[in-house]
Structure formats: structure tokens, C-alpha cells
Design a protein that fits this description.
- This protein has about 140 residues and is mostly helical.
- The protein has three domains: about 50 residues; about 35 residues; about 40 residues, no CATH class.
- It has five helices and two strands, in the order αααααββ.
- It starts with 13 loop residues before the first helix and ends with a strand.
Length: about 140
């Protein structure tokens, strides 16, 4: 029995991968489009439309506070985030805090998986393996991708 195609996406030709990517993007666009009525309702409840109408359509002028204060506030927020990131980099950088775990021997792997010692040692040497299981869920053999 051949494995499903989804496990081997590199075996698809470039045109089919592009088509599947386009279909995925289209599905996400439809999904986002379905959320628009709820987002519109939330914006209306929060008064975004009223604020926009009063500030820009009725008065037909820009507020000097908005032009001056908002960029300053945005700059201060960026400055605070940069300072916080640099503080964390200085505080936590350079030191490896994770402890090295002891290696697990092949016998322990074989006992835990219910596999043969040869299979357990083969798993250690392989970078990526696909395990074939019997009816009881015990590994019987492996194949490299």
C-alpha cells in the first residue's frame, strides 16, 4: 500500500503545488470574508463609524492633537518595546540555561516501544524514519523517507 500523497509533497509537480497553494489562499480569503459582518458589527458597537463621521466628515478639518500626539505616542511605544527587548537580551543572552539530557540507550528504546534491538539502533542512526506498526501498535520495521 502506498502512503497518501500528503506525506510526500515534494513528489508533486510545480504546477499542482501552485494550484494547491492558490486554492488554499482562496479558501482563506473566503473564510476571512465570512467574518466581515461580525467585524463590522463590532466596529459599529465600538463607535468607530461615529468617531470617523464626527472628526473627518462633519468638521472637514484635521485635529492638531491627532497629528502631533499620535506619532509621539507611537514612538514612545516603540522605544519602550526596544528597551524591554534589549533588557531581556542583556539579562538572558549568552547563558545556556537548558540542561543536557542523558542519552537513552537502545535497550530502553526497544523496551519502551516493544521493538527489536536492531530496530531501536536503526532509529538512532536515522534522521527521519517512518515506522510500520503491527495490529497491536508495536513497531515492526522502519523505512527512511
Amino acid at each position: 500500500m502506498t502512503p497518501p500523497l500528503i506525506e510526500r509533497p515534494r513528489h508533486l509537480d510545480r504546477g499542482r503545488r501552485a494550484l494547491l497553494g492558490l486554492l488554499t489562499a482562496l479558501a482563506w480569503a473566503v473564510y476571512v470574508y465570512l467574518w466581515l459582518p461580525l467585524l463590522t458589527l463590532l466596529a459599529w458597537l465600538l463607535g468607530v463609524r461615529t468617531v470617523y463621521t464626527r472628526l473627518y466628515l462633519e468638521q472637514s478639518q484635521l485635529d492638531a492633537f491627532l497629528l502631533l500626539a499620535l506619532p509621539v505616542i507611537a514612538g514612545l511605544c516603540a522605544l519602550v518595546l526596544i528597551v524591554w527587548a534589549e533588557y531581556n537580551r542583556v539579562r538572558f543572552g549568552g547563558a545556556e540555561r537548558r540542561r543536557h539530557r542523558a542519552d537513552v540507550d537502545d535497550a530502553a528504546v526497544a523496551a519502551t516501544l516493544g521493538a527489536t534491538p536492531a530496530l531501536a539502533s536503526g532509529l538512532r542512526g536515522a534522521r527521519v524514519s517512518v515506522l510500520r506498526l503491527d495490529d497491536h501498535g508495536r513497531p515492526v520495521r522502519r523505512s527512511d523517507r
